[in-house]
Amino acid sequence: MKLNTISGRFAALTIIFVILAEIFILLPALSNYRLDYLESRLERAQIASLALLATDDALASDLESELLQNAGVFNVVLRRDDIRQLVLSSPIPGPVIETYDLRETRPWQSITDAMGTLAESKDQVIRVIGAPVNQAGQLIEITMQTAPLRSGMIDFGLRILVTSAAFSILTAILLNLAAQRLILVPIRRVISNLSAYAEAPDDPRHIITPDARLVELRNAEIALEAMQKTVTSSLKQKERLAQLGQAVAKISHDLRNILTTAQIFADRLEDSADPKVRRAAPKLLNSIARAVTLCETTLAFGKAEEPAPSLSRFNLAQLAGEVIEAETLAAPEPGLVEYLTDIPASLMIRADRDQLYRVLSNLTRNARQALEGTGQPGLIEIGAGESDSEWWIRIGDDGPGLPDKAREYLFQPFTSSVRKGGTGLGMAIAADLVRSHGGRLELLRSDAEGSEFMIRIPREVNAPLLSRPETAR
């Protein structure tokens, strides 16, 4: 039985408490035995002295010695009518080293005296004073040896130890069995259930059924049952979504091929002699192009996760310049949106350059398209800095801001787009890429004065990954 188990620790605590109980039982018992022993010697001495007082003649020396020997004392002194009288006497083998008055003994002092008697191994002579039985005088005083007293205390203590140890061991065994039955067996059942559930968490048959009698264990089983049901339901939902995703990917793949063919034929409509057909052709081509883009992004998002970042040090201002240059060329109305950078020219950052380019490009493109949708001039600002623990990049604009629903599902795929024809994957992909660096993408604000995003990338390479992007409140 190991001490790092509940059974081992329970057994160890039981042994410790049993030992403490033995001590608390033994000390008062020894004290009471000592007092009874001394009082019995006083009674015997009183009886011996009464035998002498009952006769007017002096006792023979051999009879007096026999009375003292039977009483277990060396001499007896009685005080009667305020007169102190040596009734029986014999030679004392040594000096009297201590006097005990049983009329004034207190419980704690009695225990201390008992321990002192046991600790002293030498045979000594003590004086004991007490009250006579049946008011046969004012007091009685005897002298006696400590060796018989100490021997009797040892024998009595051993009997007490053996008896109480037997009961204590039996109690410990019963307590251990009760703990095994009432506590450890239900705990082992929970552990067994957890092991079985871990092997097949999608199997509802492995969900625990609360049946513990103890309130605390039953509450734990109820909480475990609720958690397992939630996990099992989530796994089934994810499995259904995965199957649906595979079906959507297959449909998107085939639909992309069909749309690509339709796009080729639609291109020829622009050469039609019918002016209505020529006017409708660009709209048709744009619709087909958006459908092809949706199929391609859906297929790309449904593939395996992005590869782990390939970290390197590079100049952040140069990367931001490349992003701005690409967005400026892609703008349908050059000059409508202006760009401002606030990045130290010497700022070096450690990240995956290509992935961070995609993140900045997604955020900047979203801001540009939001500004272009208003038809009014706008400004996009990219700022950056560093602290002892992280690098930060801020992308802000003075556009119309995001709707409440878009903010609520901002980083979830296929749900955050507010632009007509958008797929809703840009923010989800950007958040995943930042999270793969151990950082997080936050929405600092979005109101009528514009939107502002913050990218935080920790300096530590092994920084813990966040479970999901957070929206600053």
From TrEMBL:
Gene3D superfamilies membership: 1.10.287.130, Histidine kinase-like ATPase, C-terminal domain
Catalytic activity: ATP + protein L-histidine = ADP + protein N-phospho-L-histidine
Enzyme Commission numbers on file: 2.7.13.3
Organism: Paracoccus onubensis
Keywords attached to this entry: ATP-binding, Kinase, Membrane, Nucleotide-binding, Phosphoprotein, Transferase, Transmembrane, Transmembrane helix, Two-component regulatory system
Coiled coil: none
GO molecular function per UniProt: ATP binding; phosphorelay sensor kinase activity
Domain Histidine kinase residues, every copy: 250-461
Protein name: histidine kinase
Transmembrane parts of this sequence: 12-30, 156-179
Domain of life: Bacteria
CDD domains assigned: HATPase, HisKA
